[in-house]
Write a structure and sequence with these properties.
Length: 142
């Protein structure tokens, strides 16, 4: 063989090109390194594993503890009934001729009622437990 025949033959691959100089298939060569079938298996089972993990977390931590539910519910005192106007000794709220109840606000044992009438508006504060009027505040416009 002559030297000219060697020039026309295929030159050896350079070391920088690496051992695999074929076409790159898959995502960055992942499919080639772990196998296409294994890649599809991972892609398809990963969501199922995630759903199982989320369901397990919800099953373990999703139920409230008994102490939390007991604290959230109002405590009932045995042998007592809820207070009403008649059981607390209070009289019903009587409105005069032409008066009507407007806004009502309850805060603990106190009830504030806005009463609109021909003489203007008045806010009346009642003590529900004692059943008596505490204050009468006229509402005026400046």
């Amino acid at each position: 063989m002559s030297e000219t025949d060697n020039d026309t033959t295929q030159a050896p691959a350079s070391p920088a090109a690496g051992p695999n100089t074929g076409p790159n298939t898959g995502i960055g060569g992942i499919a080639q390194s772990i196998g296409t079938r294994n890649l599809w298996l991972i892609i398809l089972t990963m969501p199922a594993v995630f759903l199982v993990a989320v369901a397990a977390i919800i099953a373990i931590f999703g139920k409230p503890k008994k102490e939390e539910t007991a604290a959230a519910a109002p405590a009932a005192i045995e042998g007592t009934a809820p207070a009403t106007a008649s059981s607390a000794g209070g009289a019903p709220i009587a409105l005069g001729e032409g008066q009507s109840a407007g806004a009502i606000a309850l805060d603990g044992d106190r009830l504030a009622v806005r009463v609109d009438g021909p003489d203007g508006a008045v806010v009346i504060v009642y003590d529900i437990v004692k059943g008596e009027e505490i204050a009468r505040i006229p509402v005026t416009r400046d």
